[in-house]
């Protein structure tokens, strides 16, 4: 029996103690702990890595604290456009969506695409039509309303600016999870609401297999958070897998090389969560902070926000 492991993230960026109230910090940590424990429980009960990452991400999507699902930021036209992806490391099957509106849990739609479609990637109205066919939950626009995100969008909606974060600090809002189950299979899932005031139906790295999301039993599972344009151009998630498969890097070595060296020199900011087929976990980030949590075997869950943790 393989040692089980799960790791999640809720975004990265300039996240400091000074930018938080004690109450808000505890709220973030509670949400992260709840999600990682729920995913771990599925694994401990013999469930699949796919089920664990989907459920963990659903819980993060349902929280208004994170820029995904319910907490998604506003686009240029005052709407919400969400992206998500999920991938199975055993079969390399994947499902992804981009630019969907009113979907309560975009990661659940991604899972439906993986399970029921011959396609990998769907977008916009077509993805929503597919969601209706398979009973994926929709919500009215006011479900996604958040006063703080609305104020930040209102401040820039009449400009050509887009904001990479959804707080007053520089923060890349994405949620994600990776897991290893008892059968030795890994999986990854990622979900995001994108950039505040984004225009032209911009799509980031989150739903792009190999950029923001990737899983392969031979190597690892990866879920990224950061400035998506850089993660796309650097093909971050697949690059880590390749370093492990073709150059013999350990998970930690591959993650450190890509996140702390390649991305830094390239100008990319952010981080990721990763797990390999042996149950090792890596949580690297080159930003000031990253909302993150992990739990291996039956150990106590780790929850962190700042570099010092």
From TrEMBL:
Segments traversing the membrane:
none
Looking up InterPro entries in the UniProt record yields: Ntn_hydrolases_N, Peptidase_T2
Q: Which SUPFAM superfamilies does the record match to this protein? A: N-terminal nucleophile aminohydrolases (Ntn hydrolases)
Q: Name one Pfam family in it.
A: Asparaginase_2
The name under which this protein is listed is: Isoaspartyl peptidase/L-asparaginase family protein
Q: Which organism is it from?
A: Pontibacter ruber
